[in-house]
Amino acid sequence: MLFCIFLHAYIGEALANAFDAAFGTDSEYGPIDPKDSPKPLDGPWRHGSLKGFAALRGDPKQTKKLYPACGLTSDSQADCLARAVPVAALFSGTRRDPAAAAAAAGSQDQPGSSSSMGSRALSDAVAAVTRVTQNTDVAVAFAQAFGALLGEVVARGSAPLQALAAAEKALLALDTRGENGEDGDSEDAADARESARQALATARTLASQEQGSGSGGAGNDQKGPSEPFLRTVLSYAAVPSLSEVTPKPIA
Fold first, then answer.
1. Same domain, 119 and 32
2. Domain of 47?
3. Which string of DSSP letters, residue by residue, matches 126-177?
4. Residue 147 Cα distances to 1, 26, 33, 55, 139, angstroms
5. If you ran DSSP here, which 8-state letter would residue 108 be given?
6. Residue 170's closest CA among 149, 153, 143?
């Protein structure tokens, strides 16, 4: 267990150094612009979590914050979703032929299976990347949900409903670690994952209702949900605060 903690810290600090080189105060982005700087900025621009990260890493007035303290503890915005995309592509990039994809989509992963272990490895990697700039359980949980969703589509070619269900399952699997004697985490982290899982469940319910409504015309059951509606569904699955989501297609 201690080895895993040290390994994650080592990898996390390596990621933080890479972010430092790309976005820190000694990078092409330069010093952090004051809040009252005239907009638009003349040159490269950092969004909120990157600006906060750069300040914690490069402020000459304070000690350099190491991973995971270099991540903001007050930021759970959608920046975390962008962190999940390259990780999901890296872990799930092997494309399968149609027959294999169909077989995999219909399989039931057993605890300890290679697929289950791969899902956990993806979740751990997404968490590590997220905490570099956003050290909050909510950001990590929703990044893991989004990463699992993307990973299912990329690795298996799953249809949207199957991908949403698989992402729910991946989050639930993380809750069994303590029960199986593996590394556990805090109650807050489990609560955050449950919120993310509920968002995925809400998205899946909405997609199921659309698929069964026949709104797509004849043969809708075979074609599945319409593309505009799926965009709305994915917005529900990817936004931490469901109350802030307007239930309409995203252009």
1. no
2. 1-71
3. HHHHHHHHB--HHHHHHHHHHHHHHHHHHHH---HHHHHHHHHHHHHHHTTT
4. 25, 31, 32, 27, 12
5. -
6. 149
Query: Which residue, of 55, 71, 87, is where some domain finishes?
Result: 71
| C-alpha pair distances (Å), 74 with each of 71, 215, 235 | 9, 42, 22
pLDDT (tens digit per residue) in 102-119:
444 444 444 444 455 567
Asked if the structure places residue 183 within a domain, the reply is yes
22-71 pLDDT, tens digit per residue, is 999 999 998 888 878 888 877 788 888 999 999 999 877 778 899 999 99
Same domain? 243 vs 167: yes
Q: What letter represents residue 39's amino acid?
A: K
134 and 179 inside one domain: yes
In a domain, 17, yes or no: yes
Residue 34 makes CB contacts below 8 A (sequence gap 6+) with none
Same domain? For 191 and 153 the reply is yes
Domain boundary pick from 21, 38, 71: 71
Nearest to 118 by CA among 135, 97, 104: 104
